[in-house]
From TrEMBL:
Superkingdom of origin organism: Bacteria
Name this polypeptide is given: YegS/Rv2252/BmrU family lipid kinase
Signal peptide segment: none
Location of the DAGKc domain: 1-128
Family, as annotated: Belongs to the diacylglycerol/lipid kinase family.
InterPro entries linked: ATP-NAD_kinase_N (IPR017438), Diacylglycerol/lipid_kinase (IPR005218), Diacylglycerol_kinase_cat_dom (IPR001206), Lipid_Phosphate_FormReg (IPR050187), NAD/diacylglycerol_kinase_sf (IPR016064), YegS/DAGK_C (IPR045540)
Cofactor or coenzyme needed: Mg(2+)
Organism: Planomicrobium stackebrandtii
Keywords in alphabetical order: ATP-binding, Kinase, Lipid biosynthesis, Lipid metabolism, Magnesium, Metal-binding, Nucleotide-binding, Phospholipid biosynthesis, Phospholipid metabolism, Transferase
GO MF terms, alphabetically ordered: kinase activity
A Pfam family this chain is assigned to: DAGK_cat
Length: 302
């Protein structure tokens, strides 16, 4: 089996490349390495191996966006297995799917390659967006997108205080965020939520760098979970967010959760969206967006 490292040099605010330079010195087996040059490049690289029907272990050396692209490119391939080395900012992919802590772990895997078939989720609004972990609408998406677009992020990262940008945007968004109305069609029934802060469709438990937003999510059960936070004061929202890392937020009446193979969502105003922490544009007023899942579409290490 061919070993291919797909490295995103800008992941983790540039820390991924530094980590790779240290990591590669410990590798004692043959491998190929490819460095991504633009958004979407990791998907193209993985798709190339799929189209050539090569047998390979594709190891993403980056963050959640990098791994999402690799999975999208490898989807449907019989001979490709996807693994990862955590080198991003949030690294939620590595919390739910197979990951390698070091080169020695890869060597052990090669002695007995074991994989499992995983689900792949998609967001369809005329165009299509695939994701492996989660897609969010509202408060969390607005923060994520603002941070990614911030001109000061890179400068503060160079000073070693890049997380300060995230904190600043959390505070700013918390104070000015305008709640919205969300309509959900699930299993033939319509539900309307008012004063919504966020809605997250999950294929695994984690989002936002380790928050267990959807504790019941399983990566290979053919289901997605929808979490809606609504009709809650700003003060109580702080309390709820303080419990998300443990998953205890699900006990609050303002947190609604449900499971299905498909959700149809629409909002009453433009609202920010993300997929696996990357910008997925805006929901348009009263536009129906479909979230669905395909079972057993790709292989992860186990």
């Amino acid at each position: 089996m061919k070993i291919v490292f797909i490295i995103n040099p800008v992941a983790g605010n540039g820390r991924a490349l530094k980590k790779w330079h240290r990591f590669v010195k410990t590798v004692n087996f043959p491998f190929e390495q490819v460095t991504t040059r633009f958004s979407g490049h990791a998907a193209e690289i993985a798709a190339g191996y799929r189209e050539r029907q090569e047998s390979a272990l594709l190891i993403g050396f980056g963050g959640d966006g990098t791994l999402r692209e690799i999975v999208a490119g490898a989807t449907g391939a019989k001979e490709l297995i996807v693994g990862s080395v955590a080198a991003g900012s949030g690294n939620d992919f590595t919390r739910a799917y197979g990951t390698f802590k070091d080169a020695r772990a890869i060597e052990k895997f090669l002695l007995n390659p074991v994989y499992r078939r995983e689900d792949l989720a998609q967001l369809i609004d005329g165009a299509g967006f695939q994701f492996v972990s989660s897609s969010g609408i509202g408060f969390d998406a607005e923060i994520t997108i603002a941070v990614n677009r911030s001109a000061s992020k890179k400068k503060l990262n160079q000073l070693g205080i890049g997380k300060l940008v995230y904190v600043l945007y959390v505070v700013r968004t918390f104070l000015k965020f305008e709640k919205f109305t969300l309509s959900v069609e699930v299993d033939g029934k319509w539900i309307t939520y008012s004063d919504v802060w966020l809605a997250t469709v999950s294929n695994q438990p984690y989002f936002g760098g380790g928050m267990r937003i959807s504790p019941a999510s399983i990566t290979d059960d053919g289901l997605l979970e929808l979490t809606v936070v609504h009709q809650i004061s700003r003060l109580k929202l702080l309390l709820v967010f303080g419990t998300v890392f443990s998953g205890a937020h699900t006990r609050f009446k303002e947190v609604s959760q449900m499971s299905s193979t498909e959700f149809r969502l629409s909002t009453d105003k433009p609202v920010c969206r993300h997929i696996d922490g990357d910008d997925a544009g805006m929901s348009l007023p009263n536009e129906m967006v479909v979230y669905s899942v395909s079972q057993y579409d790709w292989k992860s290490i186990y």
